[in-house]
């Protein structure tokens, strides 16, 4: 609707007035006149209120932070300064990648402006960079979304100006050839164009952006990895991640809220190829702005699609405490390629909403036995050092053990025993080896508490078992030490 009005042969001023008069696109209860903006606006005509006044520098934030809501009741002249840096960074534990970035981070900074703001955009390409870059903002009405005006060689700056005609949440990305490669290397971010009345207030806002990486080595292969064009063409990423790295929003870096608070996630998808089935395990989105549009068009949604080069805004109230996982529900991406983030919610339990486990017993139908999962991989050509074994073990742990024993080794009370400070495990290395080789079931007492969860036999190689146990011995304050493949071999007999 906005676009049609704007593109009719009205004067720009007239178009801006119409845009400002349009119905409140975010469905919030506030009206134009009840807005809490500056009182100097009183007595101004609508045309005057829609005209930009003043000038300010945009506040840019790194993910997952979002700039504060705008409190202006009028459009202004906003200056955005963004630079491009090509730099090595962490893609996963022990894995590095040469990222091409806006502002030195993946995703690039979050930009927040108001509808009808006049945005003066400066793009600088750091002199140490090797490639030219530009920017296509999906919020721009104009050729290339700004790309044709922002082609910038290393050591140069360019500048263009656009009026933010349409409210919504938009992706920006580099569009220099080969476009796919610039995006695959990390060049994307989000820009929010707030409607004139702003967004309804919430307690927490976060910036989460999914994307894929295509590396010459497979998932978890250590060292500095380079871009693999063949995998990108086949759309077979090794990594699918939130905010630019495996674990960027996990453990101490998790998102946080307190029980009873409302959370708004600005979710983007840089692609370059995959569509995200964005889901928060154990939560339901109360509201979704599908595809990042200006209207909340759905309520009570479990999973929302976020297209490559698209976005969504989801809002929900957190009613119970705990750890909630953000995933791409194309679920191998979550548990095997990195598309997993955490939201921790603090506060008191509410058993009327969620009881926690109320009963647990043994169920062994006919043929019930420890299940075996996954197949062994080939042993490495040479013996690993302890440091290498621990690093490799960390990756094996993440894929095979962390779901039950947790990334922090704390386990889950009543079900899966801790591996951190475990008297059972640390008393004898053979116990860990036996548990991985053959699984475990029945009651197990660890640190004076009883556990009844079933552990499957993991079909890992001697080398992998030695690595993951060495990782456990050297993590979370455990005593240290090493398990050798030979020791595993002896336990197989
Ligand atoms: Cu680029």
Distance between the termini: 73 Å
Radius of gyration: 26 Å
Helix content: 10-25%
User: Which regions are unreliable across 5 or more consecutive residues at pLDDT < 50?
Assistant: 1-40
Total helical segments: 12
Total count of strands: 25
Q: What structural class results from the helix and strand content? A: alpha/beta
Major sheet description: 6 strands, mixed
Molecules bound to protein: copper (II) ion
Describe the global form.
Answer: globular
Mean pLDDT: 87
Please state roughly what percent of the residues sit in beta strands, choosing from under 5%, 5-15%, 15-25%, 25-35%, 35-45% or over 45%: 25-35%
Structure commentary:
This protein is of the alpha/beta class. The model is unreliable at 1-40 (pLDDT under 50). It has helices spanning 2-7, 12-21, 46-50, 179-184, 229-234, 332-336, 386-400, 402-405, 423-426, 429-438, 462-473, 485-492; strands spanning 55-57, 77-92, 95-102, 111-114, 118-125, 136-137, 157-163, 168-173, 188-194, 204-213, 223-225, 239-242, 255-258, 262-271, 276-280, 285-289, 298-301, 303-306, 310-317, 322-328, 340-346, 372-373, 444-446, 449-451, 457-458. The strands form six sheets. Strands 1, 2, 3, 5, 7 and 11 form a six-stranded mixed beta sheet that branches. A six-stranded mixed beta sheet has the order 12-10-14-19-16-17. Strands 13-21-20-15-18 form a five-stranded mixed beta sheet. Helix 10 (429-438) crosses helix 12 (485-492). Bound molecules: copper (II) ion. The site of copper (II) ion has 6 residues, from loops.
């Amino acid at each position: 609707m906005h676009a049609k009005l704007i593109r009719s042969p009205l004067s720009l001023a007239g178009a801006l007035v119409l845009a400002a008069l349009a119905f409140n696109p975010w469905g919030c209860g506030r009206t134009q006149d009840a807005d809490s903006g500056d009182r100097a606006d009183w007595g101004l005509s609508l045309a005057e209120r829609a005209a930009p006044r003043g000038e300010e520098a945009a506040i840019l934030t790194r993910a997952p932070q979002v700039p504060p809501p705008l409190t202006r009741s009028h459009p202004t002249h906003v200056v955005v300064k963004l630079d491009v840096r090509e730099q090595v960074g962490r893609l996963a534990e022990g894995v590095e990648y040469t990222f091409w970035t806006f502002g030195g981070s993946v995703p690039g900074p979050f930009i927040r402006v108001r509808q009808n703001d006049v945005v003066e955009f400066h793009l600088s390409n750091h002199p140490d960079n090797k490639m030219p870059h530009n920017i296509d903002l999906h919020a721009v009405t104009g050729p290339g979304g700004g790309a044709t005006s922002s082609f910038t060689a290393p050591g140069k700056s360019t500048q263009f100006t656009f009026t933010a005609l349409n409210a919504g949440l938009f992706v920006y990305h580099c569009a220099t050839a080969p476009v796919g490669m610039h995006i695959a290397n990390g060049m994307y971010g989000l820009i929010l164009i707030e409607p004139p009345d702003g967004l309804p207030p919430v307690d927490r806002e976060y910036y989460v952006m999914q994307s894929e990486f295509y590396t010459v080595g497979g998932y978890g292969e250590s060292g500095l990895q380079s871009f693999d064009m063949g995998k990108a063409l086949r759309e077979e990423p090794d990594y699918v991640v939130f905010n630019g790295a495996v674990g960027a929003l996990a453990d101490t870096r998790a998102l946080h809220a307190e029980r009873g608070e409302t959370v708004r996630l600005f979710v983007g998808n840089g692609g370059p190829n995959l569509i995200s089935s964005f889901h928060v395990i154990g939560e339901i989105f109360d509201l979704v702005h599908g595809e990042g549009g200006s209207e909340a068009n759905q309520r009570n949604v479990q999973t929302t699609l976020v297209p490559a080069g698209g976005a969504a805004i989801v809002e929900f109230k957190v009613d119970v405490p705990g750890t909630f996982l953000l995933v791409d529900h194309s679920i191998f991406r979550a548990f095997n390629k990195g598309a997993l983030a955490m939201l921790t919610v603090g506060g008191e339990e509410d058993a009327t909403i969620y009881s926690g486990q109320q009963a647990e017993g043994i169920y062994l139908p006919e043929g019930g036995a420890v299940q075996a999962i996954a197949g062994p991989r080939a042993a490495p050509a040479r013996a690993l050092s302890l440091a290498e074994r621990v690093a490799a073990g960390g990756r094996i742990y993440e894929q095979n053990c962390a779901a039950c024993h947790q990334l922090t080794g704390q386990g889950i009370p009543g079900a899966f025993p801790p591996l951190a400070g475990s008297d059972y495990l640390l008393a004898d290395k053979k116990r860990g080896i036996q548990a991985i080789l053959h699984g475990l079931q029945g009651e197990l007492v660890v640190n004076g508490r009883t556990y009844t969860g079933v552990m499957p036999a993991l079909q890992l190689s001697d080398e992998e078992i030695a690595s993951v146990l060495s990782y456990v011995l050297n993590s979370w304050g455990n005593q240290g030490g090493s398990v050798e493949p030979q020791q595993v071999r002896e336990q197989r007999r």
